[in-house]
Design goal:
Blueprint lengths: L2 H29 L9 H27 L2 H27 L14 H30 L6 H28 L3 H30 L3 H29 L5 H12 L6 E12 L2 E10 L5 H18 L3 E10 L3 H5 L16
Parallel strand pairs: 2-3
Antiparallel strand pairs: 1-2
Helix pairs in contact: 1-2, 1-3, 2-3, 2-5, 3-4, 3-6, 3-7, 4-6, 4-7, 5-6, 6-7, 8-9
């Protein structure tokens, strides 16, 4: 890679991102920067992440222009992608806070899965971009300059991201918010990519082995792609309403314990979790002789036990059934569905 040629060629790529970066910063500066002082810890963490990511990005772009290193370019490209991903994450979090409305009866919390999935997909794109430039450098050759200055700039960026990523990740885990958790993990991948680039530049500085630059670039691409795969897996599992084993265990512990009053049993348990809310459905069986009022009171007591067993919000819907006449009452539902039998949904 001839530095005079490569820097000019890649400057066009980064300048496009720089213009978009300026526009995004103006928008966020006018609209949500005041939320850095919000009482909502997750919102505050995400806004701080957006602002600090901009500073880290500036350092990494500067390190690339100073050194011309392919690994430094890889690191800066990953950070460009990270910045836009954080912007999307912030938007997703704001949307998830909106209450249910006429068009969204279940609220907006499922945006969490889309937000996390988008961040994973964006990281994959960054990994492929890094591989592309590494292969191009193998073909055209490598020339690296100003190693000392570049190393200092990348170390500073890595330290900033280490503090930021740890803070956002801990905030997300403390408040059980996967949007913040995924953003914290993504920020910490920036630390490892920067550390890898610094290591490559140090080795080159002391040994002169320029091929290390390409090896580190490909290693960074492999690492961040693995992290992206885990985020995409979480996203797909959420969108497909995959059972949460911890939530399922908490619910079943309550149901397997002594049931309140007149409840004889239960079946057809289903649940799914979106954001900080779990939606639960189940059928409860009562004696035919019990009054509706008594059945409702006992069901409500069970509902409270289930809500107390979870560490997040829950919306529980219970279908009350008589024990003796259960099967006869349900005969009217046979064949009601057009394509699937009712039992296929449980």
């Amino acid at each position: 890679m001839v530095i005079e040629f490569e820097s000019d060629r890649n400057a066009g790529i980064l300048s496009v991102h720089t213009e978009l970066f300026k526009e995004l910063m103006y928008f966020y500066g006018q609209s949500i920067i005041p939320d850095m002082f919000s009482s909502d810890p997750v919102k505050r963490a995400l806004i701080i992440s957006l602002v600090v990511s901009a500073a880290s990005l500036s350092l990494k772009i500067g390190a690339f222009f100073v050194t011309g290193s392919s690994a430094a370019l890889s690191d800066s490209m990953e950070s460009v992608v990270h910045f836009f991903a954080v912007g999307f994450v912030v938007y997703g979090y704001y949307l998830s806070l909106k209450p249910a409305d006429e068009d969204h009866h279940y609220g907006h919390e499922r945006i969490e899965f889309l937000s996390v999935g988008a961040e994973g997909a964006i990281i994959i794109v960054a990994g492929l971009t890094i591989v592309y430039y590494a292969i191009q450098s193998m073909i055209t050759g490598i020339t690296i300059i100003n190693l000392d200055t570049g190393i200092y700039m990348l170390v500073a960026a890595a330290l900033i991201n280490l503090v930021l990523g740890t803070y956002v990740l801990r905030t997300g885990r403390r408040h059980k918010n996967m949007i913040a958790v995924s953003n914290g993990k993504h920020t910490l991948t920036d630390v490892w990519t920067s550390a890898g680039v610094v290591l490559a530049l140090l080795i080159i500085h002391y040994t002169g082995r320029l091929f290390i630059d390409i090896i580190i670039s490909l290693s960074i691409a492999a690492y961040i792609s693995w992290e992206a795969w885990k985020l995409l897996t979480f996203s797909v599992r959420g969108i497909m309403d995959t059972r949460n084993p911890d939530t399922d265990a908490s619910i079943r512990r309550v149901l397997d314990d002594e049931l309140p009053g007149s409840i004889l049993g239960w079946h057809h348990l289903r649940h799914r979790t979106s954001g900080n809310t779990t939606w639960i459905e189940l059928h409860l069986v009562f004696s035919d002789a019990i009054t509706l009022k008594e059945a409702h009171n006992d069901a409500t007591r069970l509902e409270r036990r289930m809500m107390d067993a979870l560490d997040h919000d829950a919306v529980i819907t219970m279908h009350l059934e008589p024990f003796e006449s259960h099967d006869a009452a349900h005969q009217i539902l046979e064949g009601a569905n057009k394509k699937k039998d009712l039992d296929e949904f449980t």
